[in-house]
Amino acid sequence: MDTLTTAAYRIISNHVFAERRQKTSNNQNALFALRPYQAGEVIADFSAGTISAEPTYLTVQVGLRKHITLQPEFLQYINHSCDPNVFFNTTTMQLVALKELQPEEEMTFFYPSTEWRMTQSFNCYCGSHKCIDKIRGASYLSQELQSQYRFTDFIQQQLVKKAARKKVA
Q1: What percent of the chain stands above pLDDT 70?
Q2: What is the pLDDT of residues 99-153, one digit of tens each?
Q3: Which of 5, 56, 84, 91 is placed for a possible disulfide with 110 were both Cys, Cβ 3.0 to 4.6 Å?
Q4: How far apart are alpha carbons 14 and 46 in whole angstroms?
Q5: In the CATH scheme, what architecture does the domain 4-168 have?
Q6: pLDDT value at position 1?
Q7: Closest CA to 76 of 100, 54, 49
């Protein structure tokens, strides 16, 4: 794992519990924990900066045609991983540790956990043994994959509706 001591990142901003860093090789931003967290621990509260009917690559989906930008804004630098260590609980508006986090560890979340259909799908190169390759949103996940992740209440509702439609068809 790259840390400050490898000079792989430069510090962009410090936010008490986390630090925004930029990778020197490609200028990609990431958010790193500054202290340890236990699984289930609340890392931070967040709120909606703006609310939009249309998604962007910076928004988080909280309802049908309802997408928010995150406040504080630096939370937008939490990158995707198919083996995430944090979760955006959009019901309680809290960022929660999914597993134990150590200081200097990059915070990551599973993008389909908050997105039904992503406006910009992408090929994933997270490097995890759990990597699912193509990230498009929760609506494209198999039932087997659905059972491996935590989803927001909104996405869970959408998954239940999708399963019910399949039973009827």
Answers
A1: 96
A2: 999 999 999 999 999 999 998 999 999 999 999 999 999 999 999 999 999 999 9
A3: 84
A4: 17
A5: Beta Complex (2.170)
A6: 46
A7: 49
Mind giving me the DSSP string for the chain? ---GGGTSEEEEEE-SSEEEEEETTT--EEEEESS-B-TT-EEEE-EEEEEESS--TT-EEEETTEEEEEESGGGGG-EE-SS-SEEEETTTTEEEESS-B-TTPBPEE-GGGT-SS-SS-EE-----TT--SEE--GGG--HHHHTTS---HHHHHHHHHHHHHHHH-
Domain ranges of the chain: 4-168
Is residue 4 pLDDT above 50, yes or no? Answer: no
Residues facing residue 80 across a β-bridge: 109
Neighbour count for residue 154 (Cβ, 10 Å): 20
